[in-house]
Amino acid sequence: MKLFLHIGTEKTGTSSVQKFFRANREALARIGILYPVTPGNHNHTGLAMAAEGLQRRGPLRKSLGLKTDEQIEEHRRKLKDGFKAELDTGSYHTVVMSGEHCSSRLLEDSEVAWLKDWLSPLFDEITIVLYIRRQDDYLLSTYSTSIKTGATHALRMPNERSMQMRYNHWDLLSRWVRVFGREHIVCRKFERAALKSGDIVDDFLDICGIDPAGYSRPQDANESLDAESLEFLRLFNAHVPRFEGGGINLSRNNIVTLLSGISNGPLITLPPEDLAAFMKLFEDSNRRVAIEYFGGARDGDGDPLFSPPSDKRARTRHAGLTVDRAVEIAAYLWQRKQEQFERVAERARSNKAAARAAGTKPGGLKPVKGKQPAESS
């Protein structure tokens, strides 16, 4: 049995890949391909959550309330048992798992080795699939995502440790090579011209040997935020944080989706000279990746690994937010939330009316002649 383990990196279309496999899970299972639910119904975050060092207490574990060593070990046990049970439910020849946090959160060889020690006995062959992106594009996209997930800091250059752990593709690849071996690593560039049919899903399916014909293709929701909306959300995060009381703050709900509806201005960026200097930091490591994984360095000026940026959307270095614009965004959010509340109330009224027409209580209990259902205490 083969395993294709897609480990990211983040901001390289991983959500598109995961949406495809979630939407086609049953159809793929019928031809012997398993996209398991145990590590996560959509994104297999359970992999990184389990493999991180026992002492780690990052956002992944915090989101599930895993606070003690005992709770983490219990999570690991349930992951292993649940995954083995899924494997036993059918005659599968291929398993696909996708979790981009494996590349961004497993920073030690020992953490990657935990995954290998668990998975190797279950499979005859394991292929690690990794997509990499231009570091300057990655930096800007990462900032946007960090704000969407609750960060409050302004756009800035990452510190030295983050540069090496998150943006040095050679170091990342080397970590996985040391554990799984070079022959088990497939690396692709997240560039339209480098992808099969210019599409990340088609490219990944090609690696897995899956014919894309006949499967549904979920449409990606575009939730990019312009500079003003992103700045509004950054300030909003300080008052309505992502985590509250040891868990996810549900009052944030769909704030990012709503903001994307009013977001149509230029995207945030840094000065061109800063981005050029940032790319220069990775010139040597990018050249090593180009030689090892892509047959040699690119000719001419520019980066030895990546083509020049192809995103031509307008950008601005100004992240300021006027009072008028902040009030305008707040008013828009207020109106959209009121519409949501009204839709919920209307559904409740419809359900209540339907229940009365059917002669049942709204909770589904049919009254017994001569007596009323007992109230719960």
Describe the fold and architecture.
The structure is a single chain. The protein has 377 residues and is an alpha/beta fold. Helices cover 48% and strands 9% of the residues. It has 16 helices and nine strands. The chain has a five-stranded parallel beta sheet, with helices on both faces. Strands 6-7 form a two-stranded antiparallel sheet. Strands 8-9 form a two-stranded parallel sheet. A hairpin with a 2-residue loop joins β6 and β7 (247-248). α3 packs across α5 (69-87), α7 crosses α10 (169-180) and α10 (169-180) packs across α15. It is globular, with a radius of gyration of 24 Å. The model is unreliable at 367-377 (pLDDT under 50).
Q: Which tags fit this structure?
A:
377 residues; alpha/beta; 16 helices; disordered C terminus
Summarize, please.
The protein contains 16 helices and nine strands. By secondary structure, the protein is an alpha/beta fold.
